Amino acid sequence: MNAQKRYEIFARLREHNPEPTTELNWSTPFELLTAVLLSAQATDVGVNKATARLFPVANTPQAIIDLGLDALKQHIKTIGLYNTKAENLMKTCRMLVEKHGGEVPRTRAELEALPGVGRKTANVILNTAFGDPTIAVDTHIFRVSNRTRIAPGKNVNEVEQKLLRHVPREFRRDAHHWLILHGRYTCVARRPRCGSCVIEDLCEYKEKVELG
After folding, report:
1. 145, HSE (Cβ side, Cα atoms, 13 Å)
2. Can you give the pTM of this predicted structure?
3. Which residues of the sequence carry a binding annotation for [4Fe-4S] cluster (predicted)?
4. Are residues 40 and 121 in the same domain?
5. Are 40 and 118 in the same domain?
6. Whether residues 124 and 145 fall in one domain
């Protein structure tokens, strides 16, 4: 795929959705970090239901520490793997209080040092909370990047590096959300909705679904 075609793809995605954002509900960097930690193998809808119960009771690291592990588990028990997630969140809260004054750090190294936080989660926080031009490659972005040929790669790291190289600078901050939403609602896994796709004529997917 050439640079001109990539530019047009992101220009159309921007025209279609000028201000994309996460579908997780949050109002502070810590709330976003909590939601992302809870989101592994869970839907955003499910996470939002759990955080709607948790955040009015505890939405700071110290408040969650004060809540206690057992009570935290009760608030998030509707989410898969809630025991492990609760333990990681509690450890993260302690580290945030002890090492960062209760604030979410702004560097990748400090974020990735937090329990349960890997490169993808750090990218989400840096991009969504702080506006950095990072791209967190999840299953949706991996599929869209390979299927359209925007940034084909054998693994998430390869796709991320290609996206960072090839996505035009003016689109880089929002590319993460455009690609996730495109993969979630249009370029879906089993049967992509090609007929209703705003970039269908630019996409290099060879097995396009005629009727969408």
Report:
1. 30
2. 0.88
3. 187, 194, 197, 203
4. yes
5. yes
6. no
